[in-house]
Design goal:
about 160 residues, mainly beta, globular, 12-stranded antiparallel beta barrel
């Protein structure tokens, strides 16, 4: 399943829809303005908060947390000992790790678990400016989590640039 995401990197306080490949609203990204740290909520079309993304305060390398039901689900960080700036690690609450690598700022990267592709993020398929697709490859994968990881990684890479 592909999801289309509009690039609104620095638009805190702006809301925008993520659509599925059929053009239906899948998630609303709700940027929370006037907060001490960068906070976004990924909401279902009915308004229910599915995932909350928060910038981690006092983090040396920069990090964002992904929360579900007000509990930590994952932490996203740039990989420590990577020669490539475009390599991130997602540490899940249960200790498992996802790898994110590719050309982040070009919106051409992959999310993998133990060498298996979970999602491919790309602009290549689209002609709409400032839009990228999150192609969730595995049917049993958590689409909301993978979209949240893509949004986190892109925001973090843009800040580092």
């Amino acid at each position: 399943m592909k999801y289309l995401v509009r690039d609104k990197l620095f638009a805190i306080g702006d809301d925008y829809w993520i659509e599925d490949e059929d053009g239906r609203h899948a998630f609303l990204v709700d940027g929370k303005a006037l907060r001490l740290r960068d906070t976004l909520e990924l909401k279902a079309p009915d308004g229910r908060v599915v995932i909350t993304l928060r910038e981690k305060l006092l983090s040396l390398r920069g990090a964002m947390t992904v929360e579900r039901d007000e509990r930590p689900l994952a932490t996203v960080r740039r990989k420590r000992l990577s020669l490539l700036r475009n390599h991130y690690r997602v540490t899940m609450a249960d200790g498992t790790e996802l790898d994110v690598s590719g050309r982040i700022l070009d919106r051409e990267f992959a999310v993998e678990y133990d060498g298996e592709l979970l999602a491919h993020i790309s602009r290549r398929w689209l002609r709409v400016r400032d839009t990228y697709a999150v192609d969730v490859v595995r049917e049993d994968a958590d689409a909301a989590l993978l979209i949240a990881v893509a949004v986190c990684v892109i925001r973090m890479a843009a800040r580092e640039d």
